[in-house]
Amino acid sequence: MLVQPTFERPSRFAAFGFLGWLTGTVAWWALALAPLPAPPEWLDRARAVCFGSPPGGLPDTWGWMLLALGPLSLLAFLAAVWGRDLLAWARRLTGTVPGAFLLGAIALPPLLAAGWLAERASAIDRAAAGPVALSAAEGERLPATYPRSADPAPPIRLVDQSGARLDPASLAGRPALVTFAYAHCRTVCPGLVNAVKGASETLGTRTSTLVVTLDPWRDTPSALPGLAQAWSLDRPGTHLLSGEIDEVVAVQAAYGLGSVRDESTGEITHPGLVFVLDGEGRIAYRFLNPPASWLVDAVSRLERERA
Where is 210: in which H helix or E strand? Predict the structure, then answer.
């Protein structure tokens, strides 16, 4: 009588352990990377503490290390304890059509996530590379006939990257550059911030620079230090500003920002406006996507007027 050989059934603990590891990994990565149009403040703080808070929604270098090493160390533990059982389960699944579909479903999310991360990283690199096309060539002088105004400048009392509330009186006595941008912007904001930053670096302590967020839902005060560092807005007299949503929206309205926010994605359509204040509480110039040279010329004209 022939006895059929028997095969040891792989441990169910191995399967449950792998599913637990997979669920935990997805939750861990979702905590760091899930794109939300208006994440709650506790989530922003958790991401900043656990993964860093650079602009663009991606973790800092040490944040990537935590995202990778945590799941990999647990997977290594599973392999050491149940490696043979896990391979047996994989062979059983690949031997059936439903099992093959299940393995494909498990592999699909990481592939989609990798594609999304590559696209986001590419967009951030493009944003950091330099300004987008502006309305005038860099280095071109401000036309002598460019209109000059003297409208009262709405006061700005928001919180900057140091956690201090800006006092409008601190801007008195010297010109100031005021613009509006937000961290997740991939179109207008990179060129706008670079133009203002370039002018600020040229002018030095002769001017103050204010960059007000257009996205207080995500650019919360706790996120400003990381954003200021990523945008290199760390010169004395430079303020990256946010605050309560109603406060920020009120400042935008006072300066006539015609922005439109997509509630489903959090993306904001807006003009690239820069205001030059004269140091006496008035708006001297308004620009749309100006080159840095125009801003330097505008401040120089104000200084000559005062002299």
Answer: strand 208-213
